[in-house]
Queue: 4 jobs
Job 1
Amino acid sequence: QVQLVQSGAEVREPGASVKVSCKASGFSFTSFFMHWVRQAPGQGLEWMGRIGPSGEDTAYAQKLLDRVTITRDISTSTVYMELGSLRSEDTAVYYCGREWADSSIRSFDDWGQGTLVTVSS
Amino acid sequence: QTVVTQEPSLTVSPGGTVTLTCASSTGTVTSGYSPNWFQQKPGQAPRALIYSTNHKHSWTPARFSGSLLGGKAALTLSSVQPEDEAEYYCLLYCGAVQHWVFGGGTKLTVL
């Protein structure tokens, strides 16, 4: 079955960076867009960005454009999200998710279990 | 930057029907925005319900349906069950910049 398994919780100091991984299994990894979203404590979901099936095409939310990088390793079916220059407001649960897209359909379905990133001095 | 607006909260009685809406600051929501809807319960990851306006996943209960209504995307729950109490989020695709934007979420109370 489809599984997206994320790396464990992280604690970072302000100004540092963090890299979260999401290992995929049970499906054709190179057929799907992979996305990252986050959720600060008590807040709503925020779309961060996505990477295309081949890994050559990325898109990021405007507010994070200069701090976030999403990459994928096809050999290990893993997608990564790196966020730099961390600040306290980046404290959140980070989720990876997959999207199937064709000419008429854009479908999100499965999500990882979430990774808590805490930014604190 | 596109802003997506949902009702902050709604209350429905068990067995009733409720419609949640999702509006875009850019204007009328069309099928081109590929509205996706998610349910989230406390401490859990989002659960996909609807994609591309009105398509259901294999696990989506029949009482959930998606549509376009009055220039917005809409999620209608019929014969509401107590377990439907949750936060619901819509997600819209802004194709011009290849971005997606979440609505702020609707907290649905079943009372």
Note: Chain B is about 0% helix and 50% strand.
Job 2
Amino acid sequence: DAGVTQSPTHLIKTRGQQVTLRCSPKSGHDTVSWYQQALGQGPQFIFQYYEEEERQRGNFPDRFSGHQFPNYSSELNVNALLLGDSALYLCASRALLSGTHYEQYFGPGTRLTVT
Amino acid sequence: AQTVTQSQPEMSVQEAETVTLSCTYDTSESDYYLFWYKQPPSRQMILVIRQEAYKQQNATENRFSVNFQKAAKSFSLKISDSQLGDAAMYFCAYRGYNTDKLIFGTGTRLQVFP
């Protein structure tokens, strides 16, 4: 059973460019959340997708957008990249077990460097 | 707004000994979940242990246990019989009852010496 996968593993972009990161959730999971983890910090919630819609959003500008596909995979898009966008981007997926009892599984992350 | 604070940037322990990592949080909610995650150099965030706020009994998972003090808003992690493979960043995290959003602390780097 494959866990959460993310691609690419690493990438380097130039300030002002646009980037797309991809996430495939764990089998049977239908909800995907994205987090940004700056160096030396804990992850910060960007947004969550369920049923192909953004359901919840953290304190991130509109330059950060996303999409969820019918197969539950998801993309994170960042426009007009800034040096401060350099971080590890984590994807987490989950399946509802019962009520509000569920576990989120994280992927290995994509390391984005903006130069 | 909820916050999570980890005041120990680094901790170290001898193999086979016990170590406790501290975490405090702030919330006005009465129902919530608390977690400890481990992040090794491979970067994958791994769930270590979970505590439901409505449960008075402290959670335990093999060598890992928590001391949950709801009134004090404290949630510490105890690792017994420490192993070299326990070396990693440990993050304390909070999740409200009706949300997927995890709020993380800044982490504690645990070193394990043979």
Note: The two ends of chain B are 41 Å apart (CA to CA).
Job 3
Amino acid sequence: QKEVEQNSGPLSVPEGAIASLNCTYSDRGSQSFFWYRQYSGKSPELIMSIYSNGDKEDGRFTAQLNKASQYVSLLIRDSQPSDSATYLCALGGGGSNYKLTFGKGTLLTVNP
Amino acid sequence: NAGVTQTPKFQVLKTGQSMTLQCAQDMNHNSMYWYRQDPGMGLRLIYYSASEGTTDKGEVPNGYNVSRLNKREFSLRLESAAPSQTSVYFCASSDVGLNGYTFGSGTRLTVV
């Protein structure tokens, strides 16, 4: 069974700082990696996807993937109080395997 | 631009009662999923449908049944509700496995 590990937090950072969220996984066959943001009482929202080793940037968000070390991370630059949420790491097997396996999430709090 | 629509948003059942959670998507996605989310447990897959006409068990299928009514609709049925099924239920859809999911807004179910 695939395992996706995240530090449950809470991770607390001051406004304007860089927040770093990490995720490790057990299945070397995983081919697709996602970060979801979930505000309290709301549904998960896809914010980043990454498929190849290296960095992928989108605005203030950077996803980093290292398949050899089996970890994926999310950096949030210039953190804002509106970034306060739970961040879920998810991975998929690719090909005909449509299912995603989710980590339990890391709670991020950005303090004004 | 509705995306994934779930009904109802809230429900309280008595132990032993039955109910069906409805899910519909308007994005022409092939695959649909039902997850439950519990504190400390993360998102766990109940059932999924890779394409119209097919359904498969996920990680926690006991006590549930599903129907893929057509390409748009995927329902989840609780035949005899138990307190252990108190949870938040999310429906999701995707076109292909590499593109991640779009989630519905969720159903908060309490079984007393």
Note: The interface with chain A takes residues 31, 33, 35, 40-43, 45, 48, 50, 58, 90, 94, 96-106 of chain B (CB under 8 Å).
Job 4
Amino acid sequence: RKEVEQDPGPFNVPEGATVAFNCTYSNSASQSFFWYRQDCRKEPKLLMSVYSSGNEDGRFTAQLNRASQYISLLIRDSKLSDSATYLCVVIVSGGYNKLIFGAGTRLAVHP
Amino acid sequence: EAGVAQSPRYKIIEKRQSVAFWCNPISGHATLYWYQQILGQGPKLLIQFQNNGVVDDSQLPKDRFSAERLKGVDSTLKIQPAKLEDSAVYLCASSQRQGISRWLYFGPGTRLTVT
């Protein structure tokens, strides 16, 4: 079983739609969680952190459910420019902090 | 502020040849990471340095891959000899503080094709 699992998609949605991505993680020692965005043939860039209380940044909302070991990202009012791959990232604590990336979920927003 | 620099951006080699990639992190960043990203997959950590010491190299195929960060600044990743399955994008990243993702910055990557 992969340490971080995501639905690879693609999610094909029209502009203005609301879309949600899920991510599950297997290591209960995971302590920090993030969503990264990766455009085609570009490097990953931090989108937002994920907190148990949930957090919102404009059209983006991230949620964490520690009991179910589940992270979500909600995008409202999708724009064409939201088309990208969204990577779930988990930091596992130990002797040092280890970052583990999911395989990503691809989103394609069409007119 | 200058970002993470990597070179070359693209490389095509034949299997069994050798190749080296270079990374210069953001000034002042103590932690440096090399990731391998195969098409359709997420980045996989190959090696993590804290200053010039190795923190994690558990997923580095040590029979063919090596990396160094001699002065705690720039780093080199080498593959010798290359295999077809090494075709991937090699991403270098750096952070000011170890393991803190919100301060993790990636370079543009080196796209390696092994034929």
Note: Chain A is about 0% helix and 55% strand.
